[in-house]
Hints:
Blueprint: H1 2-20, E1 32-34, H2 40-52, E2 56-60, H3 63-71, E3 78-81, H4 87-101, E4 108-111, H5 127-137, H6 139-155, E5 158-162, H7 175-194, E6 200-204, H8 216-228, H9 232-238, H10 242-257, H11 263-274, E7 281-282, H12 286-296, H13 300-310
Parallel strand pairs: 1-2, 1-4, 2-3, 4-5, 5-6, 6-7
Amino acid sequence: MLLYILGPVTAWFIYRWYKESKRVSNIEDKYVYITGCDSGFGNNLAKHLDKLGFPVIAGCYTEKGEDELKKISSKRLTTVPLDVSNSESVKKAADFIKNLVGEKGLWAVVNNAGVALPSGPSDWIDIEGYKSMLAVNLTGVIDVTLSVLQLIKKTKGRVVNVASVFGRISPFGGPYCVSKYGVEAFNDSLRINMKSFGVKVLCIEPGFFKTTVTDTEMLRNSLKKLWDNLPQDLKDDYGSDFLQALFDHLDQRFRNFSDGDLMKVVSCMEHAVSAVYPRCRYSPGWDAKFFWLPMSYMPTSVSDKFFLKYYPTPRISKL
Length: 319
């Protein structure tokens, strides 16, 4: 009986591997626009696609990011200054790309730029903190996509959105999960809208990886700054020892879950750009596949109970 199950399952995996191994042709004419190329996933993807032979347009937030990327890349790679939270900057980059690609159009945009700060309990962060992150992680993704979507329609190309496994489940407060849930919704609606135009819209949902976005020292400093700015009555609710407990929780979480192999994510991004038959969703990282995604399918009461068990408890709840 087991063989009757294993046989078809094995055959299906072999078929999927063979199908997904096929790559698009004429990559030297397929321009790929990537945001957030100063560091992390975007920087690694830009270098990787450049080596493969794709003409890459790398959006960088800083001049230093542009200069360092140019030094280690071929002439196929072009950099462009880009602040995804600024519509004028997005428009200037789009105009530059239109002049660069001409009639060839744009094969793919990879919306990779993102921030993780401010991060902390939801009532520690004011509306400006929410707005600043949403401007990069969500409205920036939408703005960049719409600015080049006509060019992508011309090639029947790809839109690749980097969300997060925390766009599927929210184990902590603050605007990060809010922004990534928004990316997931934009991705899903755009995927359906673009189907008739032959454009594939794909989503990357990484787990914890060691990048500047997940730098524990930066996160600790952000939490300390938020705590220092809280009114006294809110500090009293949480208790004087809550901040240190939050630091300990943060250290443990990153120690248990963070992965230093960024190529796991970059390989998924590259497959989304270059495969003839890409997947609609990619979930790189063992924690995403075997913990966070399964947890997202659990009843809300179960997942809430689990997260609360390991999350620091405010002083007022102990009274």
